[in-house]
Amino acid sequence: MKKFTTLFLLILAFTLAACSGSAITSLSVVDDVQTAAVSEVVADTAVTTTQTITATAVPVTVKYDSEDLETSTTATTTITLSGNVIAVAGEGTVVNGSSVTITAAGTYDISGTLTNGQIIVETADEDPVVLILNGVNITYATSAPIFVSNAEKVVITLAEGTENVVTDGDMYQFPDAETDEPNAAIFSHDDLTINGSGSLTVNANYNNGITSKDDLKITGGSITVNAVNDAIKGRDSIAVTDANITITADGDGMQSNNDEDAEKGYVAIESGTINITAGSDGIQAETSLLVSGGNITIASSGKGLKANVDITIAGGTIAIDASDDALNSNNSITINGGDIVVASGDDGVHADVSFVMNDGNLTISQSYEGIESGIIIINGGTIHLNASDDGINVSSGEGGGGRPGQTVSGDYYLEINGGYVFVDAGGDGLDSNGLGTLNGGVVIVNGPIMNMNGTLDVDGMLTINGGFLVGVGSAGMAQAPSTASTQYSVLQMMPATQSAGSIVHIESEAGQEIVTFVPTKSYEMIVVSSPELENGTTYLVYTGGSATGTVTDGLYTDGTYSAGTQVASFTISSIVTGQGTGMGGPGGGGRPGRP
């Protein structure tokens, strides 16, 4: 019986505490309704590592004015709905049959049922219009039941304890062929805020559920949107805090689509609960998508979270089940915190330019490729991923990686400086179509089992200067770390294929344990790099047997190993012991013809 403890937990604790990387200022609301609240999210993905990424996202400022947060305003005018009849007590309105037009700024209390009519806001005043929905059921068959034609800002307050329903028809009538708005059950040409503690159900049978052509803020309430197209749209921005939102949409769940101003077209979520079932993307931002808190659940036929410029996650709990990429950015993705669990029919995480993880927990339970980006930097946090193809893939994302005769590009690189990474891959475990560096952290790789892929597949070189690495897989494309490394590594072939679940154990002749590991897949080789490996020392390799102690992701600590069969031995005499048969071979990085 051999007693062992390993250093990998100590390494993990040290690297999590000492990892480099810039911090993000998380989105926060200062509830000062007198001076207005200002929240800033700076999506700066620059990191202090061997190489540096320059951020391209524009800093986002979300300003909450007093009326965005105030829910106790006293109404000066009351509007009572009764079938097709509208009664008004107070000023600032014009009633025309079953429609009422609000023509002046002020606060309007609306209650009752309107069976086929419309609430219109048409005012040139500089002050906001506040609509208190105090138990309404508004239906309009041929246009938006609530239509903000013109206003400085409109605030919809959901009165405490009330249920409010807005429903449109499936065919709108427009004055001419050139007109296509309004196109949502609640539609505003101008800034729109929804707050309060009551509930709102929007049934959008024609097109979208809630739309603002400017900024849309949701700062409270329990909101349900059922839409035949997109559920919630804010062209300039969407900001959510302290709301409970449930969405069922045939199109996107939430979307901000201003593509003309780099400082707009963003989505910022600070708190609240959001549940989305979408026929297309869950949440889509034309520029930046920022999450600093809240509970978000997405089931989508498209992508889960999508942004053209940047996704930054600094907190919250996120669960995504997406047919396409779970997280997708045309530029960068940064994770600074939060608990993220995703399942994807394509990539778990895909960023065309860069992916940086500084903190938080990321679990990819199912994917084609786990994490794919042109640059991948892991400074801290915890990653668990399962992929049917490559686990971590550094490539352009344009359909190839590890191609025969490909020129190694310094623009692509993988860098692990800290954190904890667990990979279970059907293709390459760690695949870089450029360089790779391990400076710290704990990395565990299971797979592949097919010889056309490798546990390590780095077109340039994988340089190991620190941290702990254990990987097992097939031998056909086995690759050893670079001799330019400063930490000792070993690549050891097995005499025969070992079955999944069969322990592999390495210890010194004196009994010092290096690794005791139970792979999830069958394996023909093991690659290990550890600060415990010492030059001039002979090590023994065992398979089978049994172990006690604490097991995490197949790695045992603080226990004893009962020897199985010794299958090999090696003596450390150079920075890398053992030779790989493949150096960046063909099998990784995307599918032929992938868009």
Topology diagram in text:
Blueprint: E1 2-4, H1 8-18, E2 37-41, E3 60-64, H2 66-69, E4 77-83, E5 85-89, E6 93-96, E7 99-102, E8 106-114, E9 118-122, E10 129-140, E11 146-150, E12 153-158, E13 163-168, E14 184-188, E15 191-196, E16 199-204, E17 208-212, E18 215-218, E19 222-227, E20 232-234, E21 237-240, E22 244-249, E23 254-256, E24 266-269, E25 273-278, E26 283-285, E27 288-291, E28 295-300, E29 305-307, E30 310-313, E31 317-322, E32 327-329, E33 332-335, E34 339-344, E35 349-357, E36 361-366, E37 371-378, E38 382-387, E39 392-394, E40 413-416, E41 420-425, E42 430-432, E43 435-438, E44 442-446, E45 456-458, E46 462-464, E47 468-473, E48 489-498, E49 504-508, E50 513-517, E51 523-529, E52 538-543, E53 546-547, E54 550-552, E55 555-557, E56 559-562, E57 565-571, E58 576-577
Parallel strand pairs: 4-8, 7-9, 8-10, 9-11, 10-12, 10-13, 11-14, 12-15, 13-16, 14-17, 15-18, 16-19, 17-20, 18-21, 19-22, 20-23, 21-24, 22-25, 23-26, 24-27, 25-28, 26-29, 27-30, 28-31, 29-32, 30-33, 31-34, 32-35, 33-35, 34-36, 35-37, 36-38, 37-39, 37-40, 38-41, 39-42, 40-43, 41-44, 42-45, 43-46, ...
Antiparallel strand pairs: 1-56, 2-3, 4-5, 6-7, 47-51, 48-51, 49-50, 49-52, 52-57, 53-56, 54-55
